[in-house]
Design brief:
The chain is an alpha+beta fold. About 35% of the residues lie in helices and about 15% in strands. The protein contains seven helices and three strands.
């Protein structure tokens, strides 16, 4: 069947043995187009916007942040998750920054640490973390070995999230969430 269809197509295209082949004719030469004249250079007549506020040199270190005298309890992974839940509810970016491994062990926090904590836990991410924290199995959380240097808690959230792994790291006697 395929052979018949193929032969039919060849016959229709004029490529059969019965049809004499004509030599292909070269395409007529087209005169080359002349390059258009150079367009005038556009100039911006709109004035630059006025910068309000203090001008800073690019690359300047971010400002440090004042922290409360008593930081969050980070003695176990369970206390870290409890503090994380309270800080998310309160919108406390300083506490959130102190609970994340990238900034938890720094001597002083800066504005970049607070911004990172806000992006990781608040705004659109807040609903995600609320769902994950609500699904934490307390038995699994309390069964984590507090003497190890790292621990991973698998949270079965169900739905589209399925399961989420929360990693904890320990430095000294303090724990933090590793994102």
């Amino acid at each position: 069947m395929r052979k018949l269809v193929l032969l039919s197509m060849l016959a229709l295209a004029g490529c059969s043995k019965d049809v004499p082949q004509e030599a292909p004719q070269p395409a007529p030469l087209q005169p080359q187009a002349v390059a258009p004249a150079a367009a005038p250079v556009a100039t911006n007549t709109t004035p630059a916007p006025e910068v309000l506020g203090e001008r800073k040199v690019s690359g300047e270190a971010p400002a440090s942040v004042t922290e409360p005298a008593q930081g969050p309890d980070r003695s176990t992974p369970a206390t870290v998750l409890a503090a994380l839940g309270h800080a998310i509810d309160a919108g406390d970016t300083v506490t959130l920054a102190r609970l994340v491994s990238g900034s938890a062990f720094k001597p002083t926090l800066d504005q970049n640490d607070l911004l990172r904590a806000k992006l990781d836990f608040l705004g659109p991410a807040k609903a995600y973390w609320k769902k994950v924290l609500a699904a934490v199995d307390t038995g699994r959380l309390l069964a984590l070995d507090a003497s190890a240097a790292t621990q991973t808690l698998t949270v079965e959230t169900g739905g589209a999230l399925g399961s989420v792994k929360i990693n904890f790291v320990k430095e000294g006697n303090a724990w933090a969430v590793a994102l």
